[in-house]
Amino acid sequence: MQAYPLLLALHVLGACVWVGGHLVLSLGVLPDAWRRRDPAPVRAFEARFERVGLPALLIQVASGAWLAAHWLGSAAAWHDTGSGLTRAVWLKLALLAMTVLLALHARLRLIPRLSPRTVPLLGLHIVAVTVVSVVLLAVGVSFRFGGLR
Fold this sequence. Notes:
- Helix content is 79%, strand content 0%.
- The protein is built from four helices and no strands.
- The longest helix is centred in the first third of the chain and has 34 residues, at 3-36.
- The chain is elongated.
């Protein structure tokens, strides 16, 4: 099998796991935890999801870097702001940076201090990561149509 189809399939599979997991967390787990101000359901979900979610994200980053290099090719193409593909790659990188910053803040600051009082702030983080993930997915789909116009 050629590298491109395999890496694209791995990238899409990683996106399914990452985005799907965050949608389940945001829409299935978080509402009840938020309403009851109970961090336990979020902690339980995170403990299980982390084992598949983080590897999925790492697969997306690695395969995404290869796919970006494949689509853009030369170093000059990375700076061609007139290209929809270049704009899509840079937007995906910015959204990835936002995801990492939100995840680090949650992991290092919010989760260690998680309590009934801080559930709403963690909930906002979860919703933010979910929205960013869905936008990443939408931008990824744009590659099929030439990127961002």
